[in-house]
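Q: What does the assembled structure look like for these inputs?
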Amino acid sequence: MTEQPGTSGTTLLRTDSLSRHFRIGNALTRRILHAVDEVSLSVGSREIVALAGESGSGKSTIARLLAKVYRPTSGEIYFEGKPISSIRRRSDQLRYRGLAPMVFQDPYASINPVFRVSHGVLRGLKLHRPELSKQQRYEEAERVFDVVGLTPAADVLRRYPHELSGGQRQRVGFAQALAMRPKLIIADEPVSMLDVSIRIGLLNLMAKLRDEEGVSILYITHDLASARYVADRLVIMYAARLAESGPMEEVLARPKHPYTQLLLSAVPDPRAPLGVSAETDRGEPPKVIDPVPGCRFRWRCPLAIEMCHTVTPEMQPIGPGHDVACHVAQSGAEVKAF
Amino acid sequence: MSSRAAEPVSEPAGAVLDVRNLSVEYLLESGIVRAVDDVSFSLQARKFLAIVGESGCGKSTLLFAIAQLLSPPAEITGGSVMFRGRNMVGLTDAALTAIRWKDLSVVMQSAMNALNPVKSIGAQFKDAMRAHGVTGHDEIANRSAEVLRMVGIDATHLKSYPHQLSGGMRQRSMIAMALLFTPELVIMDEPTSALDVVAQRSLMVQIKELQEQFGFAVIFVTHDMSLVSHFSDHLMVMYAGQVAEQGPTRRVFDSPAHPYTVGLLDAFPSIRGERRQLKGIPGRPPDLARPPSGCRFAPRCPRVMERCTAEPPELYQLDGIDVRCFLYDPAAAPADIGSAP
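A:
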C-alpha cells in the first residue's frame, strides 16, 4: 500500500494509515464521524501532488493533520523520515511549521486587515528565522514578494490588504509561506475563490516555486483541470478514504476507480461535447458516520458487485505507481462506469 | 399583459425581456462609479442567456437592476428594462411585488444565506405563496410538494431546515421556490458556485430540463465560462461594466472575437488534450471610479493599438455578434480579423 513518488527521487512527506475521527452528538447519541480513514500518501521532493475530491471528503482534514492543527486518531505522518508525533520541543514544532507552512483558501479572511501586508511576513520571519537582523528581515520580505510577483515589492509591502486584489492577497499568502524557507507548502484550495483569469497566474506561481525554489506542494482542490495543469501526481479521495492515486497523466488517461471516472465526466469542458452519462448522478457525497464495512461509493456505483457491500477495498497497485481501491478494477475487469 | 398596448412596443416580437441602454451608478462620497454602462440586450421567450465576467465587472449589479432590487447608493441612471412590454424602471413597489416571484423570480448566489435558517423549507415556500395571494392550505401544500419533486427532492424535506440539507439540495430548493408560480423569467446569480463539479453538472442539466419543460427564460450569471458552454443559447461577456462581446454561445466559444474573450477562454486549463502553458490575463480589471479613457481593456490587452488608449470603442456588429473592439471597426482599415487567436 505504499506509494512511490512519481517523478522525483526522495520522499519528503509520507502518511501511514492516517485516520482522524470526530465524536459527534451527546452522551446518549454519541456517534463517530470518520473524516479521514487509513490514508497513506506521499509527497516527493520538488513534487506537486494534487489531492482532489468533493467537499466533505476529508481533504482539508488531511491538510490540518499535516499542519498539526489536529492530532491523528491513529496512524502517523513522517516528514523527512521522522514521525511528527515525536516532535515535542517548541523549537522543533516551530521548525516543522516553517518547513511545512499552509496557504489558505480565503485570501480575504487569512490576512489581518488592520496591518500592512508587511506585518505578517515580517512577523513570520522574526519568529522562524531569529538570526536575521531587522534590515535582513526586510530584505528577505522584499525578496519573497518579488518571487511571487508582487512588484515593486517595497511598494506592495506598505499596502493594506484591502488595497490588494484577491489574486494579490493569495500571492501574499504564498510569500509568507516562502519566507520560512519551506520544503512543503500545504495549499488548501488556494485558487478556488479567485477569478478564472487570475487563477492561472497563481497556478504558474506554484509551478515556479517547485521549479525554481525547489518547494514541494500538496495542492488540495476539487478542480481536476487545474490539478492537471500544475501537479505531477493525482490523489483522489472519496468519503474519507483514498480512491485512486498515480501519475497525473496516467490517472487521467486510464482512470480505474468509478468515482474518478465520474469526476472526470463532470468537468465542464467547452472544447468537448457534452457527456450525458453522468447526468443522473446527483452528486451527494455521504457523511461517514459509524461506517460499516464495504466500499463507500457503492450506492452511487453502477458496477457494484456483492463484495463491494461487505468488504472495504484497500489501495492496491494496478500499474506503475498507480494504485486504486476498487474491487472491480482489482479483479482485472475493465471499469467503465461513467 | 393588458398594459402592453399602452406601452410603446420597442422590443422585437417574442422578447420576454428587452434591456435598452441600461446604466447603473453607485453614488458614493468619493465619486460616481458607473457599474453598468449602456448595456442593451433582448431575451426571447424560452431562451437561456449567460452573462460572464470577472468579479467587479458589474454582472451582479446588472441582474439586480433588471429585477429592480438595487438599493442606494446604487441607482439606475438611464435606460429601460422592458419585461413583457412593460418598463420595470420606476415601477412602484406594489406593482413590482405583483410581478416578482409570479412572473420573474431570482435565485441568489448563496442558498445558505438566501434561505432562512430558522424556518423549514415548507414554511418558506408557504410565505412566498401567501405573499402572492395563495392562501388555501391544501393548495400551498400540494404546490410546495410538487415543485420540490420537480427538482428531484423528496417532499418530506418540506419539513427540513436548511442546515439539514446538503449544499446541492439547498440550491435545488431555492430553484424550486423560484418555480412556485411558473414564472416566465428566472434570473440566477451563480447558483452553482458553491457546489462540487458533480453536483454542479447535475444541477445545470436539471435547470436546462426544467427550462425545456416549463418554457421559462433564464438569465444565468457566472464567472465560470466553461460551465455554460453547453447550456446557454446566448452569451454576454462583460468587462468593466460594459458588454465586451455578445452573441450565440457556440459562435462565441468557437471563434471568440474580443481579446478579452480570447483571454478568458485561454485561461481554462483543459482536462483533455495536450498539457500546455497558459498565461491567463495579466493585470486586473480597472477601478470603475476612474476607468481608462480609451478602451477599458486596453491596459491588459495583448493586441492593444495606439487608438485603443485614445478613444473608447463602440459595439461593432460582426456577422451575428456584437464586439467592443477596434479590431472590428468597419470604418477603420480592414484588420486581420481572421487571425484572431
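Chain B touches chain A at residues 54-55, 152, 166-169, 195-202, 205, 223-227, 229-230, 253, 263-265, 267-273, 275, 277-282, 284 (CB under 8 Å).
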